[in-house]
From TrEMBL:
PROSITE patterns: ABC_TRANSPORTER_1 (PS00211), ABC_TRANSPORTER_2 (PS50893). Residues 3-228 form the ABC transporter domain. SMART domains: AAA (SM00382). The lineage of its organism: Bacteria, Thermotogati, Thermotogota, Thermotogae, Thermotogales. It comes from Fervidobacterium thailandense. Gene3D superfamilies: P-loop containing nucleotide triphosphate hydrolases. Keywords: ATP-binding, Nucleotide-binding, Transport. The keyword Transport applies. Belongs to the ABC transporter superfamily. SUPFAM superfamilies: P-loop containing nucleoside triphosphate hydrolases. GO terms for molecular function: ATP binding; ATP hydrolysis activity; ATPase-coupled transmembrane transporter activity. This is ABC transporter. GO terms for cellular component: ATP-binding cassette (ABC) transporter complex.
Length: 230
């Protein structure tokens, strides 16, 4: 399944943040989106999630009428998405809001908690989880809504080494379930371990779309000392 972007532009206070961006995303593929701060990485993900207004087209597969039916957005700070007083309540919040039957809610919640290795924490207070656990919970809560594409915005930036590993392993599991993963990140070497593809955005435009190793080499070369000491 493909999510296709054609001539996408996003403006903020009259200033272009993204300009004429055309690309696509596939289920069963991890795409890392890289670029300097302010380049438009997060804005691209937010457009794909229907969180910002845009010009151009986002072409959905047959059977979908809106991007928020197809995609799910996970923020950098998982605490901004925590709502429930327990892990289980946090996962079911969105499911209750869309009016699912209790049996379906229970089924979906149990499935994503097992998949993200959180079943043993279902009755725990989310705020006392580790950073990696909180981020996996944020992913689980979105995944329960059954999007085909997960949009992950700097989801490892606030985590320690152990938390980063937990989240990377979870992302690979989701890819193997044929989910499309789009992750905006500054952690190039970390995500190059699992990414199938790399999109490099500079000044709101795509300047590279291809193999991660080649995109990262181009980015590091262009950033030079700014990258090394950032």
């Amino acid at each position: 399944m493909q999510l296709i972007v054609r001539h996408l532009s996003v403006y903020h206070n009259g200033v272009a943040v993204l300009t004429n961006v055309s690309t696509y995303f596939e289920t069963g593929e991890i795409t890392m989106v890289i670029g300097p701060n302010g380049s438009g990485k997060s804005t691209l993900l937010k457009a794909l999630a229907g969180l910002v207004k845009y010009e151009g087209e986002i072409i959905l597969p047959d059977g979908y009428e809106a991007v928020d039916e197809l995609t799910g957005y996970v923020f950098q700070n998982p605490e901004t998405q925590i709502i429930g007083s327990t892990v289980f309540e946090d996962v079911i919040f969105g499911l209750e809001n869309i009016g699912l039957a209790p049996t379906e809610i229970e089924k979906r919640a149990n499935y994503v908690l097992e998949l993200l290795e959180l079943s043993n924490l279902r009755d725990s207070d989310p705020y006392y989880l580790s950073g990696g656990q909180k981020q996996r919970l944020a992913i689980a809560s979105i995944l329960a809504l059954e999007p085909e594409f997960l949009l992950l915005d700097e989801v490892t930036a606030m985590l320690d080494k152990s938390g980063k590993r937990e989240v990377l392993e979870a992302i690979v599991r989701l890819k193997n379930l044929n989910k499309g993963i789009v992750v905006a990140t500054h952690e190039l070497d970390l995500f190059s371990q699992i990414a199938d593809r790399c999109i490099y955005i500079r000044d709101g435009r795509i300047v590279f779309d291809g193999q991660p190793a080649d995109g990262i080499e181009m980015y590091k070369r262009e950033m030079g000392a700014e990258f090394l000491y950032r």
